[in-house]
Amino acid sequence: MIQIQFYGLLRMLLKQEKLELTAVGAEPVGALLDRIQQQLATPFLHKLLDGDRQLHAGTIILVNRYNVLHLDGLETEVNDGDVVAFFPPGAGG
Fold it and tell me: What percent of the chain has pLDDT over 70?
């Protein structure tokens, strides 16, 4: 299983903290995002990705507490037993 955790405004938007998905082998974070969106009724990808499917500035995605920006970005592989956390960009001032 892959543990998915939502933080910040995503948690409020989706009205849930966690989700578990069955692992399908080594899966890129980008593909995992699409699979998560298929499981949820509320659209949320627009909070993390722009129209070109690039991370919005300030978006943080962690795989086992490592930021994907310091790994392979949306191509970072997720495997069985991994924990993936999504933090949308912060706003306010």
Answer: 97
